[in-house]
Amino acid sequence: MLGLDLREQAFISFGGSGALFTPDLALAVGAKTVLVPELASVLSAFGAATTDIRRERIHSLLALFPVDPAVVARVSAELSRSVLEDLAADGVSEADRSVYFEADLRFSKQISEIAMPFPAGGFDADAVDALLGAFRSEYARRYGHGALALGAPIELATIRAVGIGRTTQAVLSPTNEDVVAGGTPAPIARRRSVRLERGDGGRADIPVFDGDRLRSGHALRGPALIDARDTTIWVPAGAAASVNRQGTLLMEMHT
Fold it and tell me: 147 and 74 in one domain?
């Protein structure tokens, strides 16, 4: 399986208490960046309220290439009709409905597939050549060129129609507030006897900043706590935190 080096990934904090724990999780795996969006505490709800509607219909084929194009065309048409009916039942207007297709491919006798997009026009010779070439390239990217089963037949396991119902999309525009030229508002308090998990595991008095006073361009260094209206953000010792134009707090960790 394809692996991701967590040291090269950014961690995104979400949930009401996520920002208390995400920085230390990032430090534990060696990640260097943590993002805390302005809507972090309600990020899941925001996404659910603004995402497009998605409907899927699938049909199992389990056919080795070359596959009969007429069969693919018939199955694709049936699946497309079904997902469009699903979207209509969801109240999506005809102008806001769209469909695309995926084929789940695998080398013969394997137990897992890779979903590959294919054109609605079907499986003519050019489309099949392009699909199989894209599958081999994606397989090599995921598992390495040495894993390619040269000469092995390729199987079309499943055809999938994905229906998308376009909904109103919220736009998070950059703040209209002026960008401050660095600096940080003074702490509003100190939180006493905060237990530290890293280092010697002792306790310390930590400065507390008011999240409502932080503006784009402000920066601070940990250890610190930021009390926002809907969450509390932990900035570990050595971390450098700054606010961007979207109101996201960017933490650069020092492992």
Answer: yes
